[in-house]
Structure formats: C-alpha cells, structure tokens
C-alpha cells in the first residue's frame, strides 16, 4: 500500500498486480490477525470524539494530555480535549478468545451445508454443530455478531464439557433463540432440564437481520444476562447456584436452506457487574464520574495520577481512588469539522477498538502515519483485523447486508 501508487493487490487469477485507489475501496479484511496475548490486560476503554476507541492502560491524565499504554501501538499521548470517555475495568480486562480467523480448534459436524468457516465468520445453511473449548472461567462475557437470511432456530450452549454434540446429559446453560425471542435453560447432570424464568422478547429482531449478542455470566452470583445491540434484554438467576463447570461453547442450528452467520466473536474475563454502563442522555457540561456504589459526581476533573482522581466540586476538592470509579465522561469541548484526506484510514485492531490516521508508510512489520489524536504513530501489521477507507467509527461489513444474494461456497 503506497500513497502514490495506491493499493497493490496480487491474486492467482490475475496476470499482473492489480492497483486500486483508496476512493474505490470500502475495506480490507485480514484473515489471521495476531491474537492478544493472555498477559495483555488493559484496564480501560478510551473513547474519542472522532470515533477512535482504544483498549489500554491509563498512565496519567492532566489538564492538557492523556497518556496511555496499548498492546498494538505502545505508549500513546492524546490531547485531553479529544477524549470523550473512559470506562475502567477494576479487575483488568483479559481476552480469552477473539475470532474466528480460521476453523482451527473448532469442531464442526453434521453435513456439508452445516457449519463451515468462510471469510472471517462461521456460516451454516442447515442442521449442524459448532463447538470449542474457549476457556470459560470465573465471571466472563461472550459476544458475537449474528446475522440471518430468514426465520432461524439457534441454540448456544455455555459452560459445557461436551463441545462436539448437543447433549442434555452434561451440565450447561442453554440459550434457545429465534427472531423475536430467547429463553434460557439449566441442564444439570442427573437432574435434567429446567427453564430459568420467563421467555425474553426481542421485538427489534423482527425488523432487521443482524444483531450484536453479548452474554455476561457471573459465577459468584449465579446470574446470566443477555444484551442485544448494547441494550439489556433480560437477566436470569439460578437459585440452585452456578451448576455448570465446563469451559466450552456449542452453537447448534435447526433449520434447512436459510443462512445464519456468526462473526466478531470475543470471550473475555469480566468484572461480574451486570448493570449496563451508563451513558449521558444530554450534553455533558461538566466532567462526570460514575462510582462503583452507583453514585455520580459532577465537577472538574483536574487529573489522574498515582491511582487517584483529583476532582474539584464547588467549595472542595476530592481525591478519589481509581478502584472506586467505573466511568468518566469528559466535559464536551467545541468540535471542529475537518475534511477527511484520501489516505486517512481506520484500522480495526485485534482485541477491540479502532484508530484512524493518515497513512504515510507501509513497510516491514509496521504501518506508520499521523493520527489526529495521537500524532505520529505506528501500528503492528499483525494486529490489524480490518482497514476501512472511510475514516468513520468502525463498521463491520457483512455479506448478508447485500440484498437478494445467496451465500454459496464457490469451491464446492
């Protein structure tokens, strides 16, 4: 990729290298992005006014600058005025799995049109089983994009030891989903199956063909919550305690001829708090801090250093320990519309988040450029999952978004 010659693309079916200009490309996906190491445990989620989202660890914040550390770009600095919010993860944020980037490690059974891997997703057109040990442990979250082409029936089974089959004799928690509703069952070895509470309604699913699914499980409280497109749908509690001890996940389809697709899956350790993250509904005229006890404080955030927020409210100043804080929203600053340049690209990185910058050099193992937020920076090529050629907040392209197109494996 070169700002003078454009994107150079090599393909076995083409005699010569194909050249594209940035205006003619929507996005490029990379098949095998490097996974985030288990040692990488960012403590914060940073969001910026231009749509950048970064998972990293806070080093310091003062009246002028934010300093943070990331696994993909090293130490970064940004003007404080560019920062929109910080979500803090008191127990750290460790990614157990992210993908898919291939079929390795997954078990797929039952028929050629059952589950198969294709272009960064698992796709099924008929009955099939898709399973894997994902290392589920403690309190954790599982999230993925789900898209479909018609009425479907999907079961996803969590905390199971049987990842190669649909098995009612192995302890697990089993979701059954179809457009418009979902229910949850507890499966317990030697006891049988029991529904946990009510069937939850999801009417918005009837108006679309794609949702983002997030499941949050808290072993200590024996609670499981479902969030669709960022909106809490339901929370179930197992009054018998959290009976399932397995670490695996199984997806089971019961349909024929239609298409279902699972992509952008991520499993992470989670702090166990099921309450949705608050979002201000109007303009933020002062700095706003949400605390772990659900209180909130408004005033002036003067800085963060040595594990404490230096926060001023009328007639007094507070030193708030970071471990007591869950979210910080910055006072809104005057925004300025800046024209986008042709080579200002958005990079979606493994582990979550995306960063936009003006491309300057693609070479060796890094891509280098200039970010509006971070200035000169370089990103490890192996960490990139997708490049977008319109510098907007990250949007995953989906083949099911195209109308009247059937999904076929051309190699079959």
Molecular structure report:
The protein has 412 residues and is an all-beta fold. The protein has a domain at 95-269: Sandwich (Jelly Rolls). Helix content is 0%, strand content 49%. It has no helices and 34 strands. The protein has strands spanning 7-9, 18-20, 27-29, 44-48, 53-61, 65-70, 74-79, 83-88, 95-99, 107-109, 116-118, 121-124, 128-133, 140-148, 154-160, 172-178, 181-188, 192-195, 200-201, 210-218, 223-228, 231-237, 248-253, 260-269, 287-291, 296-305, 308-313, 316-321, 325-329, 344-349, 353-363, 366-371, 375-380, 384-388. It has a 16-stranded antiparallel beta sheet that branches. Strand 31 (353-363) and strand 32 (366-371) form a beta hairpin. The protein is globular. The relative contact order is 0.18.
What can be said about the biggest beta sheet?
16 strands, antiparallel
What is the CATH topology assignment of one domain? Jelly Rolls
* Cα-to-Cα separation, first versus last residue: 32 Å
Number of helices: 0
Assigned CATH class of one domain: Mainly Beta
Averaged pLDDT: 84
Helical amount among residues, as a percent range?
A: under 10%
- CATH homologous superfamily title of one domain: Exo-inulinase, domain 1
**Overall shape:** globular
Classify the beta-strand content into a percent band.
over 45%
Low-confidence parts:
391-399, 401-412
**What is the alpha-carbon Rg in Å?**
23 Å
Name given to the CATH architecture of one domain: Sandwich
- Tell me the structural class: mainly beta
| Number of DSSP strand runs | 34
């Amino acid at each position: 990729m070169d700002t003078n010659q454009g994107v150079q693309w090599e393909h076995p079916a083409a005699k010569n290298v194909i050249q594209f200009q940035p205006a003619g490309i929507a996005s490029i996906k990379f098949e095998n992005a490097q996974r985030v190491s288990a040692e990488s445990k960012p403590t914060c989620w940073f969001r910026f006014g231009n749509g950048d989202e970064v998972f990293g660890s806070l080093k310091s914040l003062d009246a002028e600058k934010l300093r943070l550390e990331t696994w993909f770009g090293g130490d970064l600095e940004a003007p404080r005025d560019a920062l929109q919010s910080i979500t803090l993860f008191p127990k750290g944020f460790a990614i157990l799995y992210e993908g898919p980037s291939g079929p390795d490690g997954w078990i797929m059974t039952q028929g050629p049109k059952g589950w198969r891997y294709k272009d960064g997703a698992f796709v099924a057109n008929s009955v099939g089983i898709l399973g894997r040990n994902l290392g589920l442990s403690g309190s954790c979250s599982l999230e993925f994009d789900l898209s479909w082409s018609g009425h479907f029936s999907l079961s996803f089974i969590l905390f199971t030891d049987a990842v190669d089959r649909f098995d009612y004799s192995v302890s697990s928690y089993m979701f059954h989903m179809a457009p418009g509703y979902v229910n949850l069952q507890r499966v317990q070895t030697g006891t049988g199956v029991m529904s946990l509470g009510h069937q939850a309604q999801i009417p918005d699913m009837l108006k679309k063909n794609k949702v983002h699914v997030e499941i949050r499980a808290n072993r200590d409280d024996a609670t499981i919550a479902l969030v669709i497109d960022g909106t809490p749908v339901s929370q179930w509690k197992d009054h018998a305690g959290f009976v399932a001890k397995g670490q695996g996940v199984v997806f089971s389809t019961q349909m024929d001829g239609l298409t279902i697709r699972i992509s952008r899956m991520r499993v992470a350790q989670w702090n166990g708090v099921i309450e949705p993250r608050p979002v201000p509904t109007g303009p933020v005229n002062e700095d706003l801090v949400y605390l772990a006890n659900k209180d909130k404080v408004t005033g002036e955030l003067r800085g963060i250093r040595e594990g404490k927020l230096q926060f001023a409210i009328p007639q007094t100043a507070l030193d708030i320990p970071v471990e007591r804080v869950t979210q910080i929203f910055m006072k809104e600053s005057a925004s300025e519309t800046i024209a986008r340049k042709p080579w200002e690209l958005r990079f979606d990185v493994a582990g979550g988040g995306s960063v936009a910058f003006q491309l300057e050099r693609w070479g060796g193992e890094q891509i280098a450029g200039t970010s509006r937020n971070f200035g000169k920076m370089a990103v490890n090529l192996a960490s990139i999952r997708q490049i977008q050629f319109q510098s907007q907040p990250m949007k995953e392209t989906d083949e099911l978004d195209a109308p009247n197109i059937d999904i076929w494996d051309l190699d079959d």
